[in-house]
Write a structure and sequence with these properties.
- The protein has 6 helices and 9 strands, in the order αββααβαββββαββα.
- By secondary structure, it is an alpha+beta fold.
- The protein has one domain (5-191).
- It has a 5-stranded antiparallel sheet with strand order 1-2-3-7-6. A 4-stranded antiparallel sheet has the order 5-4-8-9.
- Helix 1 crosses helix 2 and helix 2 (47-61) packs antiparallel against helix 3 (66-77).
């Protein structure tokens, strides 16, 4: 289920509720933010985080027309999870600019080396947004999906089995277990908003 114009608050209503909504989004992001080693973070997205993003973009950019909001919705609806895929924003974080620039070249090919490892199933490889891709260098912000088949979705929901986020790039390796609360949130996100 996608977000529609009717889901977006008017600028005045958003401003009046912004502090409360921001706390809700921070709480939602906390459980969906996964550190993958020292220099990568994945933030799994859902309807709440994307609704916030559209409303913040409209606020910051002064977008008030239905057409402008519709354009933002088209962009961010593509980042929503579905019943068959998780969606995340990947942040590649090196605080020192020259090291970051160097690593963005060295991490080329990362799209072949990031996956979810769910016990008893094949790896769920990340799919990167082709519009952000460059043959020589990657961007420090990537929008990715993890398509999941029925067996993988069942394994994600089974808290008695392991679920890990893995990167095995020659220039960067990390492995992080997904907690039960995070997995529960991701399974709920695939079911859509309540």
């Amino acid at each position: 289920m996608t977000l529609s114009i009717d889901d977006i608050l008017s600028p005045d209503a958003f401003q009046a509720q912004r502090a409360k909504l921001e706390r809700e989004v921070i709480d939602a992001k906390r459980i969906r933010r996964i550190s993958l080693g020292d220099h990568m973070t994945l933030l799994f997205e859902n309807h709440l985080t994307m609704k916030w993003q559209v409303q913040e973009m409209a606020r910051v950019e002064g977008i008030h027309s239905r057409e402008g909001i519709a354009h933002e919705l088209e962009t961010y609806n593509a980042l929503l999870p579905t019943a068959s895929r998780l969606s995340a924003t990947l942040l590649i974080e090196y605080p020192e600019p020259s090291e970051r620039d160097s690593m963005l070249y060295k991490l080329n090919g990362l799209d072949q080396h990031l996956f979810l490892e769910l016990a008893g199933t094949s790896r769920a490889h990340a799919t990167f947004d082709a519009t952000q891709w460059n043959e020589e260098r990657i961007s420090s912000v990537q929008f990715i999906d993890f398509p999941l088949d029925d067996e993988q979705r069942t394994a994600l929901a089974d808290l008695n089995s392991s679920a890990e986020l893995v990167v095995d790039h020659p220039n960067y390796q990390a492995r992080t277990s997904l907690s039960g609360p995070t997995r529960g949130a991701l399974v709920e996100d695939m079911c859509g908003p309540r």
